[in-house]
Structure formats: C-alpha cells, structure tokens
Amino acid sequence: MQDLRSLTHAELERFASETLGEPRFRADQLFQWIHAHGALDFGAMTNLSVALRERLAQVARLDTLVVDAVAESRDGTRKLRLLAHDGAAIESVLIPDEDKLTQCISSQVGCALDCRFCATAKLGFKRNLSPGEIVDQIYRARALLSEISPSRRVTNLVYMGMGEPLHNYENVVKSLRILNHDLGAKISLRRITVSTAGLVPAIEKLGTEDVRPNLAISLNATTDEVRGLVMPINKKWNIARLLQAVRAFPLERRRRITFEYVLLEGVNDSLEDAARLAQHLRGMPCKVNLIPWNPHPLSSYRRPTPLAVERFQNEVKRLGLPTYLRTPRGDDIDAACGQLAARAKR
Questions:
Q1: Is the pTM of the predicted complex or chain greater than 0.70?
Q2: 286 is catalytic
Q3: Residue 332 pLDDT
Q4: 91 catalytic residue (yes or no)
Q5: Which of the following is catalytic: 22, 91, 164, 260?
C-alpha cells in the first residue's frame, strides 16, 4: 500500500489517474488534505465521496509519526521524540528566538558519517526517513503548538537533526518539493536550510535542482589533517574539493552559504585556525556560525573557554568574515547541536 504522505504533487497526480482511475484534480484535493489541513486518515477528507474514501483505504495509507515524549528546556527549547510506524525513534527540536521559531528536523535514523564530536554518530546508521516521515515532523510540531502555544508558528526549518541529509538525497529533495508546494505547507525555500558534512557530488547535484534551499556546510577544521580526524568524510572529499563545489553552488541574489564551525578546545580553536578559516572563505558570499561544542557523555572533547571563543570570533571578524556565535539552546535536555541521539525516555 502506498504511503500518500510521501508523494510529491506530481506523483499524487499519477496515483490518482493510474491507481484510482480518477481525474487529476483529485490530486489537488488529496494534497491539500494531507499537507495543508493535516488529515490523519481518509475519513477526514469530507469533500471526497464515501466510495472513494473506502477505495483509498484499500490501496493507500497515511503514515503518521507518534509524539512519544516532549522535553522542555529552561530556555524554552522543546525536543520531540517521535516514533515511526516501525518503532524507529527520531528527534526534532523547536527553538524559539524572539519573533522566529526554528524547527530542526531529522532525515535519517542514526547516521553513517561518524563525526567524532556528534552523539548521533554513536548510534550508527539504521535507515533513511521517507519523505512523509520528514515532512510529518513539521505537522506533528504544528499540532503540538496548536495545543500549547496557539499564537506561535514554525517560521524556519533546518535539516540539521539526526542524519546526513544528502545521504538521503532523493527523499530530502522530495520533502522540499512537498513543503514548498502552493497547495500544501507553502514554506518558502528561503526559510529552509539543508546542512551537510560535505558530500561533494550531492552538493553539485543539489545545485542543479529546481528546488534549492539554503545550504549550510559543517566545516569544523581548517586543515585536512584535523578535519580528517574529527570528520572522516574529509578523507574522501578534502577541504579544497569541498570548497570548490561550494563556490560553484548557484546562489540567488542576497543569499549566502552558511559555514558551521564547532569549536573544540585545543583541536581547532587557535588564532591560526581563525586566520586559515578566513583565508579559505575569502571572496565567498557566506557567513560563519561558531558553535562551542555541546558536551555529551559519548565523546571526550571539551568546550573552549568563553575567552577562547571570543578571541576566535573577534579574529575571524577582524579578517572580514561575518561571524556569529550560536548560543547553546536546549543543552540541558540534550537538544543542542550534536546532542541528538533519541535515547530512551528518562
């Protein structure tokens, strides 16, 4: 049985025509019910005939994530633990910031890249999420917000949760098409960011798509020796090759590449690293997000002192790069960058 939540509008048109024998406009109705109105079952689709709803129940399904647990941080961040139809657990995070509410969503159960500083990497890779499982994280968050904070809505999406989004390329691109469609959630691509550890061929392919989100690169080191130690993917595509692909990525007017740089004490936080970072990125329309490492028991790295972080940031700024400090959000509930591991409820 076909999970309709995972189908793009074009695929839903084919399903309506070829499987149901219905006119293509049925796809509009189905897409709106699923992605605009958040229908959880076919019975809710009241502008479809009873016979058609019964037919849909025989040939299709609507997979829905279950909110298993919600943890709230002292800073207002909320972490959702979500269960898929097969019991797989993933996590998604809601991060409030004045007039914005950013949702960090997952693309995989676990991760295969084994970045040394990341808790998710310690889970290993379990499986990819379907397009429906990716987008339903947003819909479950919307349903939760309607109950606990009706005046707030998710304004920005970041594919920075569990998993490497570009390892799940086809499903992630399908989810972008679904979320951006005018009959569905209608989320602007300017408000969606996809973060990658540096899968060069996938970055190049993403640059050719007709749906292109903002791109964020998890860089985290300025030499191949250090990056290869903290991010093994660097042994396949080194810094020079990665930056070559990023420089060629097509950007619309006033859009920039984001470089994420996790600061690890004594590893990549020297003033020499700051100078190399500025040299690597010179002339590129970009900004740098500095992320002091968020501690977790699965890694032995240390967070630099506030003074070391300030010195690093000031040096990169002095050398001409827009540089911002990402204040840890939700670290008391293991919801901050690098801490997601979908551990059992405590």
A1: yes
A2: no
A3: 73
A4: yes
A5: 91
